[in-house]
Amino acid sequence: MDEQLLLKKAQRGDDEAFYQLMENMKEQLYRIALSYLKSEEEALEAVQEVTYRAYINIKKLKKPEFFKTWITRIMINYCIDELKYKKRFTNENFEMKKSSESLPSNSNYDFVEIETLLSRLEKKYQTVIMLKYFHDYKISEIALILNKPEGTIKTWLYKGLEILRIFIGGEDS
């Protein structure tokens, strides 16, 4: 069934239509949560919480064509809030040690090493790079999700990638 038709039904209270919408999005939402929270258990919890929040607020969504953007934004906000909460209760010395770890000297980085490097970036750069390269969003979609102009997204993407190159040691690449 068409996503917009499902959404209209869900907004009128059709639980089966809402279930189908979430079924279509659950894998993508899970991947986003996992990329932020780094824990399968926390990612599953995030999907549950975002499903609940979407169910409660679905009638507030004015334009059905922005459902994917809307629910992605809810997930990102939830993950950022969770990270802020966890950071408040994390030992500051551990955080300082983690951020000053030396980088591997070779240029063959695996996924975990890339994630470690990404975690050292400012949140805005991290978010844009993750949405673009890990979740295959277009610049225009990222701009909608983050409610920023496309030019800002391009700038953040460029600056974030430049910083990553510096971290890796490939300033000339």
TrEMBL record:
Pfam families according to UniProt? Sigma70_r2 (PF04542), Sigma70_r4_2 (PF08281)
Give every RNA polymerase sigma factor 70 region 4 type domain span: 113-162
An individual GO BP term? DNA-templated transcription initiation
Q: Which InterPro entries match?
A: RNA_pol_sigma-70-like (IPR039425), RNA_pol_sigma-70_dom (IPR014284), RNA_pol_sigma70_r2 (IPR007627), RNA_pol_sigma70_r4_t2 (IPR013249), RNA_pol_sigma_r2 (IPR013325), RNA_pol_sigma_r3/r4-like (IPR013324), WH-like_DNA-bd_sf (IPR036388)
Keywords (alphabetical) are: Sigma factor, Transcription, Transcription regulation
Q: What is the lineage of its organism?
A: Bacteria, Bacillati, Bacillota, Clostridia, Thermoanaerobacterales
Q: Which organism is it from?
A: Caldanaerobacter subterraneus
All residue ranges annotated as the RNA polymerase sigma-70 region domain in the record? 22-88
Source domain of life is Bacteria
Similarity comment: family membership:
Belongs to the sigma-70 factor family. ECF subfamily.
The protein, known as: Sigma-70 family RNA polymerase sigma factor
GO function terms (MF aspect): DNA binding; sigma factor activity
